[in-house]
Amino acid sequence: MENNANMIEDFFRENPELRKTEKYETEAILLKSGELASKIWYIKSGIVRLYIYSIKYEKFVGISFFFPNDMIIPFRSFTQNIPSMFNVEVVENAILYAIDKNMWQNITNEHPEFSQYIFEKLQQAHYKLISDMTIALTCPLAERYEEFMKNENPLIKNVKQKIIAEHFCTSPEALSRALKIEKEKSRRKYVDSK
Fold first, then answer.
1. DSSP state, 17?
2. pLDDT of 156-180, one tens digit each?
């Protein structure tokens, strides 16, 4: 298969009836927890996040960020008509290709190679979610942040610090303190090693 981003762009350019272009402003909610997902999205431009809001702790629990050329597929909700456990929100103005259930059925029936590619993208996204959650459960805050910023799409730098902090279930102030403490520890180790 050719370049992945080009493959998706080319497919939708050649089959405009199989997608609807939608423009969203920052903070637009695409899907709320408890709703049925009626669409999947391909990001042409912008940044979108997937998160859970914990009522018990009154905090946002970040799951993942999505960038241009990514697919957002609340898979179980979309395919099995199960209420979504996730919220999907635009964090930077976005242009998305929305694919509803009829369009998806058409794609799977008439374009099996492309639907297989989308399934592979879903598997990659699932692996990324598992990896992100493993890091979240096993590493201190500053280490998680550094790992996240190192491995995430460079466009993450466009996301507000408040949203990044929410991703780690903390406040911007607490994240800043954790990073300062880690920086001071690193400085002390360097000084002590001399």
1. G
2. 888 888 888 888 878 889 888 888 8
Q: What share of the chain is helix, strand, coil (3-state, %, to 5)?
A: 50, 25, 25
109/152 Cα distance (integer angstroms): 34
The string of pLDDT tens digits covering residues 37-49 is: 999 999 999 999 9
Question: Cα–Cα distances in Å, from 42 out to 78, 81, 140, 162, 186?
Answer: 14, 20, 33, 25, 40
Instruction: From 189, 190, 168, select the one nearest 49 (Cα to Cα).
Output: 168
Long-range pairs for 125-128: beta carbons < 8 A, 24 or more residues apart: 125/64, 125/70, 125/71, 125/73, 128/64
Q: What's residue 1's pLDDT?
A: 39
Q: 34 phi and psi, to 5 degrees? A: 95, -15
- What mean pLDDT, rounded, does the chain reach? 84
Q: Indicate the DSSP class of residue 44.
A: E
CB count, 10 Å around CB of 74? 24
The count of residues in the chain is 194
Whether residue 126 contacts residue 88, with contact meaning beta carbons closer than 8 Å, is answered with no
Q: Is residue 89 within 8 Å of 47, Cβ to Cβ?
A: no
pLDDT for 62: 74
